[in-house]
């Protein structure tokens, strides 16, 4: 079974469901592997745990 892993800041359950749906559909389209074979892992990270350019994402997003 193919696995898609994404690291992302926190998001709503609805957005995660849409992300899983679209990632699976597109990966299936490109690879010709059935959607139901894909496993999607979402690693959520709080914005305090993400740094960009020496600053925390939580500070950048203010």
Summarize the structure.
With 62 residues, the protein is of the alpha+beta class. It has helices spanning 13-31, 57-60, and strands spanning 3-9, 39-45, 51-52, 55-56. The longest helix is centred in the middle third of the chain and has 19 residues, at 13-31.
SSE inventory with pairings:
Layout: E1 3-9, H1 13-31, E2 39-45, E3 51-52, E4 55-56, H2 57-60
Parallel strand pairs: 1-2
Antiparallel strand pairs: 3-4
Could you please describe the fold and organization of this structure?
- The protein is α+β, with helices and mostly antiparallel strands and 62 residues long.
- The protein has a two-stranded parallel ribbon. Strands 3-4 form a two-stranded antiparallel sheet.
- 37% of the residues lie in helices and 29% in strands.
- The mean pLDDT is 96.
- It contains 2 helices and 4 strands, in the order βαβββα.
Helix content: 25-40%
Q: How many alpha or pi helices? A: 2
- CATH class category name: Alpha Beta
Dominant shape: elongated
Number of strands: 4
Find the CATH topology. Macrophage Migration Inhibitory Factor
Please give the order of strands in the largest beta sheet: 1-2
Q: What order do the helices and strands follow?
A: EHEEEH
What portion of the residues fall into strands of 2 or more residues? 25-35%
Distance between the termini: 40 Å
Q: Structural class of the helices, strands and pairings? A: alpha+beta
Radius of gyration: 14 Å
Tell me what the CATH architecture is: 2-Layer Sandwich
Q: Find the CATH superfamily.
A: Macrophage Migration Inhibitory Factor
Main sheet makeup: 2 strands, parallel
**Segments where pLDDT lies below 50 for 5+ residues?**
none
Average pLDDT, rounded to a whole number, is: 96
């Amino acid at each position: 079974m193919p696995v898609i892993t994404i690291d992302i800041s926190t998001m709503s359950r609805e957005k995660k469901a849409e992300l899983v749906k679209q990632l699976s559909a597109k990966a299936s389209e490109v690879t010709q592997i059935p959607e139901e074979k894909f496993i999607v892992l979402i690693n959520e990270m709080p914005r305090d745990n993400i740094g960009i350019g020496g600053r925390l994402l939580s500070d950048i997003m203010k």
